[in-house]
Design a protein that fits this description.
This protein is α/β, with parallel strands linked by helices. It folds into five domains: 1-77 and 179-242, Rossmann fold (3-Layer(aba) Sandwich); 81-162, no CATH class; 250-300; 327-534, P-loop containing nucleotide triphosphate hydrolases (Rossmann fold), CATH 3.40.50; 579-645. It is 48% helix and 19% strand. The chain has helices at 42-50, 83-88, 92-108, 116-132, 138-148, 153-156, 165-179, 195-206, 219-225, 244-282, 285-300, 367-374, 409-416, 422-431, 448-462, 478-490, 502-505, 527-534, 552-608, 611-614, 617-645; strands at residues 2-13, 16-27, 31-35, 57-62, 68-71, 183-187, 211-215, 228-233, 236-241, 327-338, 341-352, 356-360, 382-387, 393-396, 466-470, 494-498, 511-516, 519-523. It has a six-stranded mixed β-sheet with strand order 5-6-7-3-8-9, sandwiched between helices. The chain has a six-stranded mixed β-sheet with strand order 14-15-16-12-17-18, with helices on both faces. The chain is extended, with a radius of gyration of 35 Å. It starts with a strand and ends with a helix.
Length: 646
């Protein structure tokens, strides 16, 4: 059942067209992932469906009884109150029911009341509805939800005004999930979630009974949650069935099919234009009409669009100016606390030249702090740290706090690398898609993705032999993430990365270190190995529809029917292919004869221009008659050739 329909939707800001004439349908129970490069209109589409903004043109239909819930990327909770009190607002309808139930309980306590029977019936009905809507379980559900989203008992009493941006996002997600809308729209829901939260959210959404639309750059998450993909780009929307991995295959097949169809049509157009030229060349009235008919058909042909070339891609590569010693760093028994809050202790590791190590751990455990300690930017409370010979750290901080918000893009780069000329620096910025006047934007006005790219460019130019990266794929679209991963894989130096990007964790590391309160736990493999050793599957279930099992008799009958239908299809296909081959062979024979006759006609025409033949009237008459026969045969052959082509 269709519950949301968009027809010819367009959105533009002035002359800047975000998308145009987009059409789509959302069925009840769909789990749709919306993907595309930054700026293609993914969040804009969700905002239009939610009613936050209006489309420039087109129509949007949402069934009347459908309740839509929307998680925005930003602007969560500007009010007061605690985390728990905000979450409890999701159950306002149950609180109202509880008040009515209390009033009815008092009313039916008086058995002599004239409205006793009516009040008792209403009380019974209300209690059944209260139970159906989760009245007896919502308190435990609320507590479990907040706990899974990283709010322990102490954090649940924290004032909203004191929450960080990530905590506000997690609270907004908790409240939305607790409200259980018919349509759940999530814009980058995995931001600010650690690995345990991600796994829990995927499990929760797997059993969610409503419809889901999610914008995400988390490829692992999309694989586990979705069964359809909306691909946005170039102002259009293309829909695919299957999860993200299936979509990648189908999109490549679709683009390849489009390329073949386009090339086939271009070849056909060239062939028809050549035929028209040759028809006109003969000068006969019949072939002239044929030429005019062909020209008319060509003019009316619906031209296939040339498949768009891949958008400009960021060009990223890391090269070290010099090598470090064999041991990059050694740490033993590191500990860190802030006041009474302990982050970790007994953290130790040995990092060797050329290794690729990823650090994972729960939010708030101190992963960023550990990186800063290992680089000597922050002091531990206790422990031993030794930095190896010739080690040159290059640091990518996830908050881009190393960028000057009051500088322009060009100025930021010139301040860091002043030996480059403006022309050279603008060329480098162009590799990271900062073109034209983009280089004069202030850093404070850049998007998260643009700041990330600027930080990556600075890191690329650093020539560091040891890259320390804190969530390097945050804020990047999927294509940019893949470019970063490719560049890191090709880097010959040492990598130390904090990340919760599970695709990256399955691509980059030689080993994974999990940071806990009591130190670092080593897993000598990639993320799948980590899941195996910790007893968590992390595997996406198949999202394609599965046929239901049937009884033995029905299954046998179905199998026989499928075999019969398949044989009939194969036979018909074989006959069609044989007929097509016959037509093709005859067309080639006819075309060969046409070329032969046109050559003979051209020879006669040339011979008739020679002076020694001009005086022989009998010869000229014979050759004219011969040429007329050839022309007549050519006309007939062209008619046959045209029929074979249609």
């Amino acid at each position: 059942m269709l519950i949301i329909t968009g027809k010819d939707l367009s959105k533009a800001y002035g002359t800047d067209i975000i998308f145009e004439d987009v059409c789509f349908g959302v069925e009840k129970g769909d789990r749709i992932g919306i993907v595309g490069a930054n700026g293609t209109g993914k969040s804009t589409l969700l905002a239009i469906i939610a009613g936050d903004i209006e489309a420039t043109s087109g129509s949007l239909y949402i069934r009347n009884e459908v309740n839509v819930g929307y998680l925005r990327q930003q602007n969560h909770f500007e009010g007061h109150g605690t985390v728990r009190s905000q979450a409890e607002k999701s159950f306002t309808h149950l609180f109202e029911m509880e008040k009515k139930i209390e009033r009815l309980q008092l009313a039916i306590a008086d058995h002599e009341s004239s409205s006793f029977e009516k009040d008792l019936d209403e009380y019974t009905r209300l209690m059944e509805e209260y139970e159906q809507k989760g009245g007896y379980t919502y308190k435990s559900e609320l507590g479990a939800m907040l706990t899974h989203m990283g709010f322990d008992e102490e954090a649940q009493n924290k004032e909203i005004s004191k929450l960080s941006g990530g905590e506000r996002t997690r609270l907004a997600l908790s409240c939305l999930l607790l409200s259980k809308p018919d349509v759940l729209m999530l814009d980058e829901p995995t931001n600010h979630l650690d690995l345990h939260m991600l796994e829990w959210l995927e499990s929760y959404l797997d059993s969610y009974k409503g419809t889901i639309l999610v914008v995400s750059h988390d490829r692992y998450f999309l694989d586990r949650v979705t069964n359809r993909i909306f691909d946005m780009g170039g102002g259009t929307l293309d829909a695919y069935t299957g999860n993200y991995s299936t979509f990648l295959v189908k999109r490549e097949e679709h683009l390849e099919a489009m390329r073949r169809e386009y090339e086939k049509q271009q070849a056909e157009i060239a062939k028809q234009e050549e035929m028209i030229r040759r028809f006109k060349q003969h000068g006969t009235e019949h072939l002239a009409k044929r030429a005019a008919s062909r020209e008319k058909r060509l003019a009316m042909m619906e031209l296939k669009e040339k498949p768009k070339l891949r958008q400009n891609r960021m060009k990223l590569s890391f090269e070290a100016d010099f090598k470090s010693g064999g041991e990059v760093l050694e740490a033993e028994d590191l500990s860190k606390s802030y006041g009474s809050r302990k982050l970790f202790d007994n953290a130790g590791m040995l990092l060797r030249n050329g290794e690729r190590v990823c650090i994972i751990g729960d939010n708030g455990i101190g992963k960023t702090t550990l990186l800063r300690i290992l680089m000597g930017l922050e002091k531990p409370d206790d422990g031993y740290l030794r930095i190896g010979y010739n080690v040159n750290f290059g640091y990518y901080d996830q908050g881009q706090l190393l960028l000057d918000e009051n500088e322009t893009v060009l100025g930021e780069m010139k301040n860091a690398y002043h030996l480059y000329t403006d022309t050279e620096m603008r060329s480098l910025l162009g590799r990271f898609l900062f073109t034209g006047d983009d280089v004069f934007k202030y850093v404070r006005d850049l998007s998260g993705g643009e700041k990330a790219k600027l930080s990556l460019l600075k890191l690329m130019l650093s020539g560091a032999n040891t890259l320390v990266l804190d969530e390097p794929t945050n804020h990047l679209d999927i294509e940019s993430k893949e470019i970063v991963e490719e560049a890191l894989m090709e880097f010959e130096g040492t990598l130390l990365i904090v990340s919760h990007d599970r695709y990256l964790l399955n691509t980059i590391p030689d080993r994974i270190l999990e940071l806990t309160e009591h130190g670092l736990v080593e897993y000598k493999g990639k993320f799948d190995y980590y899941l195996e050793k910790t007893g968590r599957t992390g595997r996406a279930e198949e999202t394609e529809d599965r046929p239901q099992k049937s009884s033995g008799r029905n299954e046998l009958e179905l199998t026989r029917k499928l075999i019969k239908d398949s044989e009939a299809e194969r036979k018909a296909k074989k006959q069609n292919e044989a007929e097509e081959r016959r037509r093709q062979r005859r067309a080639e024979t006819v075309e060969s004869r046409i070329h032969e006759l046109e050559g003979l006609i051209a020879d006669i025409q040339y011979e008739m221009t020679l002076p020694e033949n001009a005086s022989s009237i009998e010869w000229m008459h014979e050759k004219s008659s011969e040429m007329a026969d050839f022309e007549a045969e050519v006309t007939e052959l062209y008619d046959e050739w045209m029929e074979l082509q249609d």
